[in-house]
Amino acid sequence: LNAHATTPKNYSQTQREEMIKALIAFVTLFAHHASAFKTIDQCQDGYSTFVWGQLEANTCLSADDLANLGIKPSDREGEPITIEIYPYPSHRTLGMVMGILAKEAMGYNVSYNCQGSANGAAERVARGETDMMIDYPYNQLVNEITPYIYSEEIIDAGPMGYSAQSGFYIPEYTKTYLNALSFGGESARFKQYVLDTFDNWVVFTFPEVVELFAKQNETSIVQGLYQEANFTPPWCNQWNATGHGNNCIDIKSEQVQLDKGVPQQMIMNLKLNMTMSWWGNEGWTNIAQRKVTAGQPFIMKTGYVPSGIFGPSAPKVQRIMFPQYTEECYSNNTASLRGIGSINCDFPVINLRKIATPRIVEPAPNTPMSDWARFFRRLSVSISLLDQLWVSSYTPNYYYSQGVASPNPYSAACDFVRRNSTLWRTWVQNTYTPAERVTWELGTSQTQVMIAFAVIGLVIITGTALLLFLYRDHQVIKGISKVYSLATLVGLAVVVASSLLFTIRNPNSTACSAQLWITPLGLALALGAVAAKTYRIYVIFQGQITTPAMLTDLYLVRIAILPVLVIFITLVVIEAMASPQPEDVVVTTDNKITTYPVCEFNETTYYILVAELTFLVIVITKLAYDARNAPEQFNEAKELGLSMYTFVLAGLVGVPLIAYLRNRNEFDTYYLLIGLFLCLPAVIVTLSLFAVRLNFAVRGFEFEKSRYSANSHVASSHDSKLAGPGSYAASRGSHAVRIASAVAKLPDKVTTVKVEQQGHSRVQSASSSPATHKGALRLGPLKEEPAVV
């Protein structure tokens, strides 16, 4: 056709007919070869749905049946199991037996995964598409399953209790047809040899025997059935149902995937005058039953033929013997559908086993699957029971698929279950007791303790703030910046109050966000205020004043607000990227399942916040250390040191301990420690910063009588006696004391303060005009002048 495609010509009618015949022959040949690779998968036609539907719609064992057997199904809480089946009579029916017992006698949620054959089952089990499979041909597919066995993705749960061997089968009445053959005038002794060895493959190489089978008209036998695939060796004509032109015996089989490529290799290598056709399980069964009913000779290839398959009075079938199986014979089994390979011997005996996932056969004790593990390992059926199961699956209940009568596996399986309770009763046990399910709530005692922590902390902080306000004009209180002291207390109060957020039961997203935001913002406010007033003392006593505005409260707001701003921005980013959400953490202990409704925080962002606050603590500690030589009236180095030590210790101990308890799901202790580590450090810091000064103020000590005055007086007397080189440097601290003290005592209208010493004087101006609120003093730069008397 291609040769004439480019040059249009006028063909005669005969030429056109020959070309059409050639095209039809090509299409037929292509369809023939393509059919060798095609199988009709009943699973694609809703077989799984049908089998599952039968299981759901019917009840095999009533409540009374189970009670009489002493069986009470456990509440498995919907635990699912998926059983893989393929449309092979014994396999699918035994799979249905398992489904009935799993659902009705044990309480499992059963589903089926239907496949065309066992090929690829190991991969499907390992991937989780199916949980288990019975009748797995282990030695036949050993290369497929071995890697999964070694990796423990699949567990070999033991033998099924029977083995299988595929083969070519003939009915015993074939002898009658062989006896009627003349064998070309051979002696009676030869005929007797044929009759005695009629189940030997050599007999079926004799031309008379080949013709006996090949010339049969099987049109009525295959009527209404669908041929899935076929195979024709080069020396045979393609099989014709009418028998015309046939020169080889056609072997009827079920599925091309069963023993894939093996019979084709046997035909090619033993030069057998045989073709093969595959009809599917149901089609093959119908052909065999019709042949037996008609009493016609035929050869069928199958994996297993049980006794009594064609009825109790029907003739038995005999397996044809080929050269004995050897591993060498199968050394180059290519599974080629065209018969290319090394096989020239009989089929191997197949070791049928049970395979499953570890979840199925190695579950934890007292879990929903533990009873099924015992069932699956004990599942074992004798060959006689398998014959019974197979035979019963074909009588007498049928459903119809594509107009072909097919057996109903549910009826056969239910009949088997009812008649063999003594057998399967040893497989079934229901020892599982559903775990008690509870939803955790923070205990009343823990809640009360956390509330007590918060109340005590807030009372102490509020009382401190009140005392600071009442004694705001006392000299020892004036020296520590009332505004930022109060800001510090507000931040600590926020931290203490935030502990109450963790007592909320069943928190929602708003409560979770509040838990994330409030505590770090409170800490940032408290630490920022401490940093601001520490910075003021630092610049005074380290001579770092570059502008008078540096000492005003308004200027120091920048320092106080910076940590709050950094933490705020960080929280905004966290909220946008990994917003905390309520989460149910489920913890199973013994026979109890506890659900903890908690807030889930991103661990990385948690440590980012901790790092930022830690950096702020380090900065404050450094400022306090550098200003440690300031006179005690203004020096809070000791108080700040103790306070920062408290924060550091709380962080070093509390942060990892709380994280550890969270990871172990010990939420009672977890929340209790959160309350403790939020409240206790805040109380300690409050007392560290203000207790001593408030003690002096409340007891009414005057400045001159306090230890601050004494120390300042000593420093002043010492400075006044200094002389010679370096005396100015040595006296700088006492000058700063007098400047700070003077600033603290200034009336509203004072504009200039002169502080004198022998030899030199340093003058700093300060204004407190009405335009500047009281206490926001502006100090001019220090400068050296000649001594003023």
What attributes characterize this protein structure?
789 residues; alpha/beta; six-stranded mixed sheet; five-stranded mixed sheet; 26 helices; 20 strands; 14% strand
What would you note in describing this structure?
By secondary structure, the protein is of the alpha/beta class. It has 26 helices and 20 strands. It has a six-stranded mixed beta sheet with strand order 6-8-7-9-5-10. A five-stranded mixed beta sheet has the order 2-1-3-11-4. Strands 17, 18, 19 and 20 form a four-stranded antiparallel beta sheet that branches. Strand 7, helix 10 (262-269) and strand 8 form a beta-alpha-beta unit. Helix 4 (89-105) crosses helix 15 (409-419) and helix 19 (482-498) runs antiparallel to helix 24 (667-699). The protein is elongated, with a radius of gyration of 48 Å. The N and C termini lie far apart (130 Å). 38% of the residues are buried.
Overall number of strands:
20
Strand order of the largest sheet: 6-8-7-9-5-10
Distance between the termini: 130 Å
Average pLDDT, rounded to a whole number, is 77
> How much beta, percentage-wise?
5-15%
| Main beta sheet | 6 strands, mixed
Structural class: alpha/beta
- Judging from the principal axes of the Cα atoms, what is the shape? elongated
As a whole number of angstroms, the C-alpha radius of gyration is 48 Å
